[in-house]
Amino acid sequence: MSEAHRQRAVEWFLVLRQMPLDEALTLALAPPPQVQPDHPEPTEDLDSPPLYDTGLDVGEGLWLRTGWAGRG
């Protein structure tokens, strides 16, 4: 593709994507929209044990390993 052809293609693309000045001004002067948090704050009490958790628990026996690589 020649340089003149590339320049013409870029000009054509920019003409198609242009925005009227009045619309650009309203977008620039409008206050930004308020963003709502996606996740509400957790209501679970932090002093009590979790009802569902991905952490390890001593009661599951994951800490009690004997022998070499758990064998034996």
Number of strands: 0
| Percent in helix | 25-40%
Distance between the termini: 72 Å
Oligomer: single chain
Low-pLDDT runs: none
Secondary-structure-based class equals mainly alpha
What characteristic shape results from the CA principal axes? elongated
Largest beta sheet, briefly?
none
What is the N-to-C succession of helices and strands? HH
Radius of gyration: 31 Å
Number of helices: 2
Q: DSSP strand (E) fraction?
A: under 5%
Mean pLDDT: 75
Report on the architecture of this protein.
With 72 residues, the protein is mainly alpha-helical. It contains two helices and no strands. The N and C termini lie far apart (72 Å). The model has no long low-confidence stretch (mean pLDDT 75).
How is the secondary structure organized here?
Layout: H1 3-17, H2 21-29
Question: Quick gist of this model?
Answer:
The chain is an all-alpha fold and about 70 residues long. It is built from 2 helices and no strands.
Keywords:
single chain; 72 residues
